[in-house]
Design goal:
It contains seven helices and 15 strands. The chain is α+β, with helices and mostly antiparallel strands. It folds into three domains: 63 residues, Structural Genomics Hypothetical 15.5 Kd Protein In mrcA-pckA Intergenic Region, Chain A, CATH 3.10.290.10; 95 residues, Pseudouridine synthase; 102 residues, 2-Layer Sandwich (Pseudouridine synthase).
Length: 302
């Protein structure tokens, strides 16, 4: 553990504790939130909550846990490159691979795989996620873009912030959603009882998911999903909230017997398409990914 005293500058007056800490220390917002949730930030002798507001001139006492060394660059078997030029590389992320290093994760990452393959990526962004402009869960496969140039990083981050990118997923869910097409508009935040999970909660961040039925079978439905926002676990949380969890997603209440019968060791969720305005040419660029073997096999068993 290391202890630091951080005065709050005027520019952060009124900012949330987690957001302000991230800016003060150059951390990702999620990493800062983890430190606050663990009781690592004290203001005026009292442990701070991440939603507390900073006051200019106050002093933050921050306990920073020693972090294990992040896994070094390592090849990622099965991670194909779908599109690449001087600005952007778009990969087909396999299951079991994280987007970037994070506390407690010792496995392979997209960032590490690109580095091991000799690809230069942008140095912009928090240290552990340089070049990463959006993420997929460890168990989710499909299209993921990484910025190679600094201009691409800034441009793509702004496109994601302004929600002008087109993110399309396919999800196999339990049961039959009614209506068969619609929108789930419900705020998502940390689960109040399980810090490793997310949930629909009052006071969460705005999250909007549009879905349409592609095919309905006896006990499951294949959905085409378009995300308006990009919250952590958004599709998994939203489908579970309407009682139609992704098949195989045991974390969010899926039936383990059904998952085993289909040979699934993860959620049936795949990022099939990503559309964005190319940061160099300005042309609308669409990259697509086919289903990986385990998801195709699950459909075949059905």
């Amino acid at each position: 553990m290391s202890r630091r005293l951080l005065p709050v500058p005027d520019g952060l007056d009124g900012e949330r504790v987690d957001a302000g800490l991230a800016r003060l220390l150059g951390l990702s917002r999620s990493r800062a939130a983890e430190i606050v949730a663990a009781g690592g930030v004290v203001v005026a002798g009292r442990g701070a909550a991440k939603s507390d507001r900073l006051v200019a001139g106050s002093l933050l006492e921050v306990e920073l846990p020693d972090r294990p060394a992040a896994p070094g660059p390592a090849p990622v078997p099965g991670m194909a490159v779908l599109f690449e030029d001087d600005d952007v590389v778009v990969v087909d992320k396999p299951a079991g691979i994280a987007a970037h290093p994070s506390p407690g994760w010792t496995g392979a990452t997209v960032v590490g795989g690109l580095a091991a393959a000799g690809r230069r990526i942008s140095t912009s962004g928090a240290e552990e996620r340089q070049g990463v402009v959006h993420r997929l869960d460890v168990g989710t496969t499909g299209v993921m873009a990484v910025a190679k140039s600094e201009r691409a990083y800034s441009d793509l981050k702004e496109q994601f912030r302004r929600r002008t990118v087109a993110k399309r997923y396919h999800a196999l869910v339990q049961g039959h959603p009614d209506p068969s097409a619609g929108t789930i508009d419900a705020p998502v935040g940390r689960h109040p009882a399980h810090p490793h999970k997310w949930a629909v909660v009052a006071g969460g961040r705005s999250a909007v998911t549009h879905y349409e039925t592609l095919e309905a079978r006896s006990a499951v439905t294949l959905l085409d999903i378009r995300l308006e926002t990009g919250r952590t676990h958004q599709i998994r949380v939203h489908t579970a909230a309407v009682r139609h969890p992704c098949v195989g997603d045991l974390l969010y209440g899926a039936d383990p017997v059904l998952a085993e019968s289909l040979g699934l060791g993860r959620q049936w969720l795949h990022a099939v398409e990503l559309g964005f305005r190319h940061p160099g040419s300005g042309e609308w660029t669409v990259v697509r990914s086919p289903y990986p073997d385990d998801l195709r096999e699950a459909l075949a068993r059905l």
